[in-house]
Amino acid sequence: MTPPQANLMSMMTELHDLLAHLDRARCERLLIDMVDIYSPSYAESAVVSRVCAALQEASVPYRLQPVVASPGAPGRANILIELGPQPPELMLVGHLDTVPYFSDEHDAPGSTLEGDVLHGLGSADMKSGCAAMVEAVCALVDAGARLRRGLLLALVVGEEEYGDGAAKLLESSHAPLAIIGEPTGLRPSLEHYGYMELRLIAEGRRAHAARPDVGASAIHAMLSTILAVIEQVSDAEPATRVSINPREVHGGDSLFVIADRCEAALDIHLAAGVDTAALREALATTIEASNADHPQCTVSSEELFFAPAYSLNPDDAPMQTSRRAFLALQQPFTPRPFPSHSDGNRFFEAGIAPLILGPGDLGVAHTRDEHVHLSEVHRAAELYLSLIVHHCIHEH
């Protein structure tokens, strides 16, 4: 047997031994408890405490990293687990917060288990990824594994708002590669969409509701502008290049009048390679044309947030090592773009290569039907463990 073959056999044996330390029941218990805890952004303290308790039970060392609190949300913190020589070679990153729960009085937070499927807010986005990462680290500690290169598992807060937890983490932590456990169905995402949040404000002229000829409806102007933006700015295949979502529209009055003001929020997701300068110019031109069609109204725009898209080179060494980690579990390494916003954009801007990889389907995230397959969560724990072995234990 040649030295490379011997090294490969040794690594496979070590990985096999570590996989035997994964505890499915422990992982499922933690995940269900996490989903049962309502943890929207700025209210993550209870779920942080539950994860800390699980780490203590498994004798996994950790520390809390305080994150600037907001009024009514004291004591917020990231959970950091540092193993092996630091600074880390690899970061595993998950977020513990969710979007707020739905307002329907018939809805209630909590989980429901139907066979292999766990339903509940945050089950896919992304408490399942967090639970799988924690289980991978628990298996490492349980096995007494020695790391040649450092590992940092960071469970952060605030991702569903503007990423204050990730921002705090990046003030003091850096690594060549970060695995971020957003829901991708366990397919790696090397290309990540950018995100622009736009606010539109339409102002018109108030009049009696029976006399639209006297007034100027801000709502009419707003709806016309939104439709023009979707038609003119999106390309022929918006789901693959530019995706525009009118997230919120509100205005008007309960009185019997023509609305003189209307506001809207637009989410714009754009693929890597989309010319952002041309996109902004197209938005401005479309809004200007809409104003010309509604001369008695004025529609203005304000860009509230922007995160650029990015694309990783699959031939770079960290990506090739990650590919070998997949193949070691006989799982194909078949990348596809991640079409949403995440902390990944922030990590890329900080000079860290963010590989998006986690259990669950993005299509059900933020919905009443959010769910994840437990079998996929366990495969995620295996993949995270294999990635740790290849990046932090095995000789490169």
TrEMBL record:
Its cofactor is Zn(2+). Gene3D superfamilies: 3.30.70.360, Zn peptidases. Residues 191-292 form the Peptidase M20 dimerisation domain. Pfam families: M20_dimer (PF07687), Peptidase_M20 (PF01546). The keyword Signal does not apply. Belongs to the peptidase M20A family. This is M20 family metallopeptidase.
